[in-house]
Write a structure and sequence with these properties.
Keywords: Amino-acid biosynthesis, Aminotransferase, Branched-chain amino acid biosynthesis, Pyridoxal phosphate, Transferase. The protein is an alpha+beta fold. It has helices at 2-15, 82-86, 109-122, 130-143, 225-233, 284-296, 308-316, 362-373, and strands at residues 27-28, 53-60, 63-64, 68-71, 89-91, 94-98, 104-106, 155-164, 177-186, 197-201, 237-243, 248-252, 256-262, 268-272, 300-303, 320-327, 331-340, 349-352. Strand 14, helix 6 (284-296) and strand 15 (300-303) form a beta-alpha-beta unit. The radius of gyration is 21 Å and the shape is globular. The protein starts with a helix and ends with a helix. The structure holds pyridoxal-5'-phosphate.
Length: 374
């Protein structure tokens, strides 16, 4: 169904005119001073160094202007630019990989293009042709191909970003915008080993609310999480985002979650929160994993929110097999512990997840299958 909807959306996109927003108009201005490409990228934080060129497409006077791939440079922005005040900014994150055959491939870029377009609509930013953007990003990656690192777990992280720039203080649809795509070499986020993470949950702090914009990749969803993430860092943990009176488990940090357990009926079941309520980002890794495990057909798969109470009880009864996070940056990361502050002022409870006993736990199998495809 996802694929059919995507195909329809793309077909519809190709019927509409988007001015000069077309790969055939792409100009290339090479940098006069290419930077040295680092040989060892282990330990580089995400987006800490960028490649030589970026793709830039400006939207002015209600029209997309000709796209250009040019040297990465600071942008000039008016102090009244809407993005600096009201945050009309959206982004995506996808990766290109160098295969063992030395070919470079991007992982499901059409999904990122569709999600960016969905975010653009919600943020009242200009619509664009997803097929053409994908094409132009491929052109950028082709130009920057020497930057796509070799080695398992390494990739070129691609960051499209669209934001409103017109200099006027009205809270209104931006009439000017910029779409910029940069690339950065990137290694495995939690190092080369299989390193579990901890999560910190306090129902007082929420990330998204029903009817809000939690399911869109908008900058405004991320800035408010930083101060809470600092609190979580005191426990060397990432934030686990709960929602509502039931304390639904929604997602964590910047990744989606899967719980693999024996349910109260004794069935093996994989649970992941649903994308239907707008509370979580509809992750592309999540979608890929759901597709895989449905093909495997080895256990029950349910899209619903597990509650904190259920998880606490299931851990106490030894029914939880694994709890893991999934996303483009982390791919798959096991969770070892939740530090849970159930009520304000109360001390925290620690919920420890068992070390998987199987030599090939589900999280690892999923990780190897996804990275194998990549
Ligand atoms: N949830 C949030 C809030 C995110 O920022 C991300 C990262 O993009 C994800 C989940 C995982 O999504 P994806 O698998 O598309 O990277």
């Amino acid at each position: 169904l996802t694929q059919t909807l995507l195909a329809l959306q793309l077909r519809r996109a190709s019927d509409v005119s988007y001015g000069k927003f077309h790969a055939k108009n792409l100009k290339f201005v090479p940098t006069p001073s290419p930077k040295p490409i680092p040989e060892d990228i282990s330990g580089l934080a995400i987006g800490s160094i960028e490649t030589d060129h970026m793709l830039q497409i400006d939207y002015t006077n209600g029209e997309w202007q000709a796209p250009v791939i040019r040297p990465v440079e600071p942008l000039t922005i008016h102090p009244l630019a809407k993005v600096l005040h009201y945050c009309p900014t959206i982004f995506e994150g996808l990766k290109a990989f160098r295969g063992v055959d030395n070919k470079i491939r991007m992982f499901r870029p059409e999904m990122n293009m569709a999600r960016l377009r969905r975010s653009a609509r919600r943020a009242a930013l200009p619509d664009f042709c997803p097929l053409q953007l994908e094409q132009m990003i491929k052109d950028l990656v082709r130009i920057e191909q020497a930057w796509v690192p070799k080695g398992e777990g390494n990739s070129l992280y691609i960051r499209p970003n669209l934001f409103g720039t017109d200099a006027s203080l009205g809270v209104a649809r931006p009439l000017e915008a910029k779409l910029v795509v940069t690339c950065s070499p990137f290694g495995p986020i939690y190092g080369s080993g299989w390193n579990p993470i901890k999560l910190f949950a306090n129902p007082k702090h929420i990330r998204a609310a029903p009817g809000g914009v939690g399911s869109f990749k908008m900058g405004c969803n991320y800035a408010p999480t930083v101060a809470i993430t600092d609190k979580a860092a005191a426990y060397t943990a990432q934030c686990l985002w709960l929602s509502g009176e039931q304390q639904w488990i929604t997602e964590a940090g910047a990744f989606n979650l899967f719980l693999y357990w024996k349910n109260t009926k004794g069935e093996l079941e994989l649970i992941t929160p649903p994308t239907t309520d707008g509370l979580i980002l509809p992750g592309i890794t999540r979608d890929s994993i759901l597709t895989l495990v449905k093909e495997w057909g080895e256990f029950k798969i349910t899209e619903r929110y597990p509650t904190m109470k259920e998880v606490k009880e299931a851990v106490a009864e030894g029914r939880v097999i694994e709890f893991f996070g999934v996303g483009t940056a982390v791919v798959v990361v096991p969770v070892s512990q939740i530090v849970y502050q159930e009520k304000a002022g109360e001390s925290s409870v620690v919920i420890d997840f068992p070390e998987p006993t199987d030599t090939m736990p589900l999280s690892k199998r999923v990780h190897e299958t996804i990275t194998g495809i990549q």
